[in-house]
Amino acid sequence: MADIKLIAADMDHTLLTEKGELPPRFDDYIMRMEESGITFVIASGRPLYTLEWTFAKTFRNMSFICDNGGVVCHRGNVIFKSTLPVDEYRKMIEFVETETDGIPILCGLDTMYLSDKYTEYEEFLKKFYTKIVFVQNLRKVDAVVDKFTIYFPYMDSKEYYELVFKPKYSGKLAVTVGDKIWIDITNPGIDKGRAIRLLADKLGLQYDQMMAFGDAYNDIEMLRAVKYSYVVANADEEMRQYANYVTDSNDEFGVIKVINKVLQGKF
Question: Is there a domain that residue 101 lies in?
Answer without folding.
Answer: yes
